[in-house]
Amino acid sequence: MMMTRGTSRVARLTTAGRLFSAVKGAAAESEKFPVMGVRWRSSLTLGEKEQVNGSSAAAAGGDNKREDGNKQVVASYWGIKGEEVKKEDGTPWKWNCFRPWETYQADLTIDLKKHHVPTTFLDKLAYWTVKSLRFPTDVFFQRRYGCRAMMLETVAAVPGMVGGMLLHCKSLRRFEHSGGWIKTLLDEAENERMHLMTFMEVSQPRWYERALVFTVQGVFFNAYFLAYLASPKLAHRVVGYLEEEAIHSYTEFLKELDKGTIENVPAPAIAIDYWRLPADSTLRDVVMVVRADEAHHRDVN
Q1: What is the DSSP letter of 45?
Q2: Where does the UniProt annotation locate this protein (predicted)?
Q3: Can you name the residues that pair with 72 across neighbouring β-strands?
Q4: Which residues of the chain fall short of a pLDDT of 70?
Q5: Where are the domains of the chain?
């Protein structure tokens, strides 16, 4: 019995030491990139990471090969080695922020004019709250739709995570099933985050826009958290009306692209892989699939 306890304690200490080393390595890596740190690296392809570091082996602190000869790659946020992922055709998967099984083809059959008419007090409160938030956004970004989309997605990715987290805790407290809502909301948050990863490639936010993201996200996260605790129905109504505004913004984005006011550049590679778009897709195609995603989130909420 004493031998078992001692062995277990040594195993725990060894595991803790490895975890500390991994976190310490990630922290040291972030010091090399003080502006955006490891988060910036997570959206790079593996080839780009090699250019940044000189070689991926140096970044991983080894030769990236196991004793059995299978190649490993740094695939997680903390820099912990994972198995190499490949596409269906056998070519290496180059993205760290999502995996091949998370990709899909967007359903573009959406109703752009669909609107939930506010009838109850909570509906009206949610509706006018969102409308009041749109005015300062219009004033600040005006027709800079690329940066506007980036800012919108940093906010839109919060509700799904907050709702999923609170429902997860509720399920644990009550020892009951969630009816699939936890996964639905977390998937929504992940999808909105991928919108952000895409528009990061399109727009180059200025320093004060980055500062605004910190401020808005901090305020919105806490406000939405409290709102969800008070009334989940109100919180979901807010998201529904936010998505309606997002559809409107992306529709205006498309109009500017069609007019030629905004250059219809080739679609970022990350968008082509995530939505399984044709190789010759453009920014307009990306905005179309993003708008479709927002419409589906609107209907869910």
Answers
A1: B
A2: Mitochondrion inner membrane
A3: 83
A4: 1-82, 138-146
A5: 121-300
Residues 232, 294 contacting (CB under 8 angstroms): no
Between vectors from CA 129 to CA 160 and to CA 234, what angle results, nearest 5°?
50
Cα 125 to Cα 123: distance, rounded to the nearest angstrom:
5
Count of Cβ atoms closer than 10 Å to residue 289 Cβ: 23
143-168 residues labelled b (16+ CB within 10 A) or e (exposed): ebbbbbbbbbbbbbbbbbbbbbbbbb
Amino acid at 285: D
Q: What does CATH list as the number for 121-300?
A: 1.20.1260.140
C-alpha distances (whole Å) from 133 to each of 65, 130, 216, 274 are 51, 5, 11, 30
Interhelix angle for 232-259 vs 145-174, to 10°?
A: 160
Cα Rg of the chain (Å, integer): 22
**pLDDT at residue 107 in the model:** 87
- Note the pLDDT of residue 80: 67
> pLDDT value at position 169?
95
pTM value is 0.71
What is the residue-wise DSSP string for 15-42?
HHHHHHHHHHHHHHHHHHSTTTHHHHHT
Question: What letter represents residue 256's amino acid?
Answer: E
pLDDT for 240:
94
The tokens of 92 are what? Answer: 């290496």
